[in-house]
């Protein structure tokens, strides 16, 4: 409970938050695609202490991903073109999930598809997942497989179709959206109307790098997705805009989180939780450090309940989503 530590007198913060119907002990999660399919980060961080572990996006069947090279460091981030490589839902449930659950982690599965039928098939396969899989992230926005004109997240109707197709998973769904649009609000509204309890803002920005010596694209998939500190202000603006327009829609923020104050900034903009992604490539335990820093910041600022921060930069405070 919030109050003061009886030993030190220091403020103790209730870090609990909610994303739609999903209650979490704190707002810090891993980001899909950056922490593997299972317990890969367990040697570096106590996964059971995190808000949740969000697994790499899965197709119903195995998928090989894009050709190498797949990653290129940029001045303030990273380009990746992994292409959603994965073992398929059935293999994930059998081979990867048990070790992850053994850590005590709350798990958010993530699915993607080339068609609405793909989304439906992945969701149906996930219906057999144990209750520790607390939600399903519907990734309609990866730039490493779909061309711009084919991405579900660039069209409200297509987004709604993909989200609606995943109802068979039998658990709360969060729609992961793209920043590569003129306005996120109608797309977020369409996702919510199709059954998403929350939106995840944002996926990577479309980008590219060319080697001037070889005169060829540096990534095997040519274009890729830009992540890391470079996109943090873009993600903050996305959260701000969607929260302004749809204040009752819970938001999970992602994009360039490297410090606890980055999470706090997202909360103030209107998010109820945040994900740590690219930072784990250089520092596998980054997500645990970020959680500790959020706690320390809240204590130092006398924040008794994390919910006090959600949307507070808009002037009226907010709830936990």
What is the β-strand count? 18
The CATH architecture category equals: Alpha-Beta Barrel
Tell me the strand order in the biggest sheet.
Answer: 5-18-17-12-11-10-9-6
CATH class: Alpha Beta
Structural class: alpha/beta
Termini Cα gap:
19 Å
Radius of gyration over all CA atoms, rounded: 19 Å
Shape: globular
Number of helices: 8
Give your account of this protein's structure.
This protein has about 325 residues and is an alpha/beta fold. It has a single domain (about 5-65, about 85-205, about 230-315), classed as TIM Barrel, CATH 3.20.20.70. Helix content is about 25%, strand content about 20%. It contains 8 helices and 18 strands. It has helices at about 90-100, 115-125, 155-165, 185-195, 230-245, 260-270, 280, 285-300; strands at about 5, 10, 15-20, 20-25, 30, 55, 70-75, 75-80, 105-110, 135-140, 175, 200, 205, 210, 215, 225, 250-255, 275. The strands form 5 sheets. The chain has an 8-stranded parallel β-sheet. Helix 6 (about 260-270) links the parallel strand 17 and strand 18 (about 275). Helix 3 packs parallel to helix 4 (about 185-195), helix 5 (about 230-245) runs parallel beside helix 6 (about 260-270) and helix 6 crosses helix 8 (about 285-300). The chain is globular and about 60 Å long. The two termini are about 20 Å apart. Mean pLDDT is about 95; it is low at about 315-320.
């Amino acid at each position: 409970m919030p109050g003061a530590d009886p030993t030190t007198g220091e403020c103790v913060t209730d870090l609990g938050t909610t994303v739609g119907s999903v209650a979490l002990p704190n707002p810090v999660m891993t980001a899909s695609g950056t922490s593997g399919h299972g317990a890969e980060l367990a040697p570096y961080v106590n996964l059971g202490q995190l808000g949740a572990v969000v697994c790499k996006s899965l197709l119903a069947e195995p998928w090989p991903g894009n050709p190498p090279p797949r990653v290129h460091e940029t001045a303030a981030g990273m380009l990746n073109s992994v292409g959603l490589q994965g073992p398929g839902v059935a293999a994930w449930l059998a081979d990867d999930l048990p070790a992850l659950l053994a850590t005590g982690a709350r798990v958010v599965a993530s699915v993607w598809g080339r068609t609405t039928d793909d989304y439906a098939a992945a969701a149906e396969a996930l219906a057999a997942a144990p209750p520790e899989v607390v939600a399903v992230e519907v990734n309609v926005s990866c730039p490493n497989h779909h061309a711009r004109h084919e991405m579900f997240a660039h069209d409200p109707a297509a987004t709604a179709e993909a989200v609606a197709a995943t109802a068979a998973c039998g658990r709360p769904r969060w729609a992961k959206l793209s920043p590569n649009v003129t306005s996120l609000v109608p797309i977020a509204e369409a996702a919510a109307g199709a059954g998403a309890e929350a939106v995840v803002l944002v996926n990577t920005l479309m980008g590219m790098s060319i080697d001037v010596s070889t005169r060829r694209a540096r990534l095997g998939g040519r274009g890729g997705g830009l992540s890391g500190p470079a996109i943090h202000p873009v993600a903050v603006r996305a959260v701000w805009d969607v929260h302004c327009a749809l204040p009752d829609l819970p938001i999970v923020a992602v994009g360039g989180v490297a410090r606890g104050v980055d999470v706090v900034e997202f909360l103030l903009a209107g998010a109820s939780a945040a994900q740590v992604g690219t930072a784990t490539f250089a520092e596998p335990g980054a997500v645990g450090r970020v959680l500790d820093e959020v706690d320390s910041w809240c204590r130092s600022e006398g924040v008794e309940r994390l919910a006090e921060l959600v949307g507070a930069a808009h002037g009226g405070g907010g709830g936990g989503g």
